[in-house]
Amino acid sequence: MNRGLLKQAQQGFALIAAIVLIVVLAAMAGFVASMVGGQSAGQQLERMSGVADMAAQTGMEWGAYKVMRLPVASCVSSTTLPALPGSLGAMKVTVTCKWFSTTEPLVPGPGTVTVYQITAKATAGGNPTSPDYVERSKTAVFSR
């Protein structure tokens, strides 16, 4: 009779172990899912940072073309470039240009040189306080 009571007390042990195992595995799955989601968001932000860097470079080159290659230099104080195509349309590129003239005694001719400072800023993500905000800026100085 003692043997029967002992056997009945041990019958529920496997069920408790299975429940504990299921709870532990579910917690681990939740942790892995949150880590994968965080990595995905980080990769998206890193990609947008690269795109913003290239967009700022494009804006700076556009400004350089306007002041260096056109017959008459065009240095507008601030210009927003048209939206980029496709999924890059959220990227906003603003190009600013400042200039001043200086006299250089070693330059042949009248000796006047115009110096242009071009800054291109590319932003995406709306508000600077939002977690998905990206901003890159490039500055270059040219003389003509």
Explained architecture:
This protein has 144 residues and is of the alpha+beta class. The protein has one domain. Helix content is 45%, strand content 26%. Strands 1-2-3-4 form a four-stranded antiparallel sheet. A hairpin with an 8-residue loop joins strand 2 (92-103) and strand 3. The longest helix has 56 residues, at 13-68. The mean pLDDT is 83.
Offer a concise description of the structure:
This protein has two helices and four strands, in the order ααββββ.
What is the N-to-C succession of helices and strands? HHEEEE
Mean pLDDT: 83
Continuous helix count:
2
Strand content: 25-35%
Give Rg in angstroms: 32 Å
Give descriptors for this structure.
alpha+beta, 144 residues
SSE arrangement:
Layout: H1 2-10, H2 13-68, E1 78-80, E2 92-103, E3 112-124, E4 134-143
Antiparallel strand pairs: 1-2, 2-3, 3-4
